[in-house]
UniProtKB/TrEMBL annotation, chain A:
SMART domains attached to this UniProt entry: AAA
SUPFAM superfamilies per UniProt: P-loop containing nucleoside triphosphate hydrolases
Protein's recorded name: ABC transporter ATP-binding protein
InterPro entries: AAA+_ATPase (IPR003593), ABC_transporter-like_ATP-bd (IPR003439), ABC_transporter-like_CS (IPR017871), ABC_transporter_ATP-bind (IPR050166), P-loop_NTPase (IPR027417)
Assigned keywords, A-Z: ATP-binding, Nucleotide-binding, Transport
Domain of life: Bacteria
GO molecular function: ATP binding; ATP hydrolysis activity
Domain named ABC transporter: residues: 26-257
Automatic annotation (TrEMBL), chain B:
Family in the record: Belongs to the binding-protein-dependent transport system permease family.
Record-linked PANTHER family: ABC TRANSPORTER PERMEASE PROTEIN HI_0355-RELATED, ALKANE SULFONATE ABC TRANSPORTER-RELATED, MEMBRANE SUBUNIT
Top-rank taxon, per record: Bacteria
SUPFAM superfamilies tied to this protein: MetI-like (SSF161098)
Organism name: Cohnella fermenti
Name of the protein in question: ABC transporter permease
Keywords: Cell membrane, Membrane, Transmembrane, Transmembrane helix, Transport
Gene Ontology cellular component annotations, sorted alphabetically: plasma membrane
Main location: membrane
Keyword Transmembrane: yes
Length: 276, 263
């Protein structure tokens, strides 16, 4: 009970309107991190607080080098925050690994495993029994039209296809949140737009809790329910923006006036002190 | 396939030319077979003594196989030990470097003094020679797994054992085979040395006999056998590598073009 009250108080403090109406799958409270380099402290994250509700698509947008990947390393338990608390499903998980699904910028498929084995081996790591993992992988690869290449090695796949497999691997892990770290940044513009539409459709069917990182404003607005705009390093949250666009969204959502207005607002926030 | 044959044509041509020249020189200057036997002389000698040579060769083959097997097993175990337990590598490095720098010719007689003329000293000598390339190259391979794959495994919470089994071991295979190919040829040489030093059988022993009897043709016949054996071992290692490592892009040239359409 106490914890609940405390949480609500803190949420109020940081201006999260929704309070405890929706169960928070992931919650960061006052998380800071700095690295030591040349005997000097380099603060990377400055008292960040954010939350991802059940079935919510939340995006972090910020300049590169602002500390977004560092934040993911903290959430993944690979590194410890200097202060603050990271909670997954309501439990403090600072430094605990194996609680999130993860999709990195590079597809990071194992070159010696077939596409299907890449998916199923990640699932066995997540605790799914081997037979069931194989079945799930085969079924879902068929579902996303990659059934034909399930037996191939990843290097025969195009960049976009590799990212689909990488996404599927994160999606199928039975974990509270999916963390996607600039998954489309390495793709060309056309493939990228295609992948966004694909992800949008798949996510709207599945409604998993997602924390997504990007530095593309359009991508953030197209996909998200809520956006946190980060400052340059040390990263603070400049603003939390609710995206009022209705779902299901389509690829041409960028034509909506609300989209255009928000885009301008975010550009303004990110553009502070940068090139005109 | 056709381009492979074409690429093999030039070295094969040189080899044939070399043998022909050798034959021509021997016939033209009437070089005595105790100095330099002609290729044809060697060939007919080998045909006449085929059964004996084959016996000796199969003894050496078996010894080399046992020694290489033992050496590779120890090499893999050492690589894993060094990789998994920090400090072991630094602690044992000097001793290992020392064992690798003692000439086998010097080490062999000592081993015979300590362990007699049986199989044991020969196997120890072979294992000492064979484990090193495997251990060293595999150790390098284990540490060289792609950083982004390491990061991925950490982020999804894979255990140390899973990182080893799913990432580091497969990633070390190309280096392992580099070591194995070296070991395959070193192993044959080491087996010959071991037999030379103390054996009553094998090609190594055969060379000792023939050279003591000034039977140069016999020595050459033995050398041909040794080279053939070393090449066969090397070929077997290459074949094994092809069978195991099938994922490397570039094995099919269609794949190279399709790869990474977006950089
Ligand atoms: N292990 C580390 N040691 C020292 N500095 C680091 C380390 N990891 C990241 N940094 C620094 O932290 C900052 C944020 O990096 P990162 O989280 O990768 O940014 P982003 O993902 O937003 O582009 C960068 O300035 C980077 O140099
Ligand atoms: Mg990053």
């Amino acid at each position: 009970m106490n914890v609940g009250l405390e949480k609500e108080a803190k949420l109020e403090l940081i201006g999260v309107s929704e309070g405890s109406a929706k169960e928070a799958k992931l919650e960061l409270i006052g998380v800071s991190k700095s690295y030591r380099r040349d005997r000097k402290r380099h603060p990377v994250l400055d008292r960040l607080s954010l939350r991802v509700g059940e079935g919510e698509f939340v995006t972090l947008i910020g300049p590169s080098g602002s500390g977004k990947s560092t934040l993911f390393r903290l959430i993944g338990g690979v590194e410890l925050p200097d202060e603050g608390s990271i909670r997954i499903d309501g439990k403090e998980t600072n430094g605990k690994r194996g609680l999130i699904g993860y999709m990195p910028q590079q597809a990071s498929l194992f070159p010696w495993l077939s596409v299907a084995a890449n998916v199923s081996s990640a699932l066995t790591t997540a605790g799914i029994e081997a037979g069931e993992a194989k079945r799930l992988a085969a079924e879902w690869l068929r579902r996303i039209d990659l059934g034909d290449v399930a037996g191939e090695y990843p290097h025969v796949l195009s960049g976009g296809m590799q990212q689909r497999v990488s996404f599927l691997r994160a999606l199928l892990m039975p974990r509270a949140v999916m963390c996607l770290d600039e998954p489309f940044a390495a793709l060309d513009a056309l493939t990228r737009a295609e992948m966004q539409a694909w992800l949008l459709r798949l996510w709207e069917e599945e409604r998993r809790s997602v924390l997504f990182v990007t530095h593309s404003i359009e991508e953030a607005l197209t996909l998200s329910d809520r956006i946190y705009v980060l400052s340059r390093a040390p990263a603070r949250i400049l603003k939390e923006i609710r995206v009022p666009l209705p779902r299901p969204r389509r690829g041409d959502v960028w034509k909506e006036p609300a989209f255009v207005a928000l885009k301008e607002e975010i550009m303004g926030l990110l553009g502070e002190g940068t090139s005109p | 396939m056709a381009s492979k044959i074409r690429r093999a044509l030039l070295p094969a041509g040189t080899l044939i030319a070399f043998v022909l020249l050798w034959q021509a020189v021997c016939s033209a200057f009437e070089v005595g077979p105790y100095v330099l036997p002609a290729p044809w002389t060697i060939a007919s000698y080998m045909a006449d003594n085929a059964a004996r040579l084959w016996d000796q060769l199969s003894f050496t083959l078996l010894l080399a196989l046992k020694g290489i097997g033992l050496g590779v097993a120890i090499g893999i175990a050492a690589a894993l030990l060094f990789h998994l337990i920090p400090g072991v590598r630094a602690a044992l490095s000097p001793i290992i470097i020392i064992t690798q720098n003692i000439p086998t010719i010097a080490l062999g007689p000592l081993l015979i003094v300590w362990f007699g003329f049986g199989l044991a000293p020969k196997l120890i000598l072979l294992a000492l020679v064979c484990f090193f390339p495997v251990a060293w190259s595999m150790l390098a391979g284990l540490g060289q797994a792609a950083p982004h794959l390491r990061e991925y495994m950490a982020m999804i919470g894979a255990s140390r054992w899973e990182v080893l089994r799913r990432l580091e071991l497969p990633a070390s295979l190309p280096s392992f085979f580099t070591g194995l190919k070296l070991t395959a040829t070193y192993g044959v040489t080491a087996a010959i040395v071991a037999e030379w030093l103390g054996s009553s059988e094998g090609i190594g022993h055969y060379i000792v006999l023939k050279s003591k009897g000034y039977d140069t043709t016999g020595v050459f016949a033995a050398i041909v056998c040794i080279v053939a054996l070393a090449l066969a071992f090397y070929g077997a290692a290459v074949l094994l590598e092809r069978l195991v490592i099938r994922w490397r892009p570039g094995t099919s040239n269609a794949a190279a073009g399709k790869r990474r359409d977006a950089a």
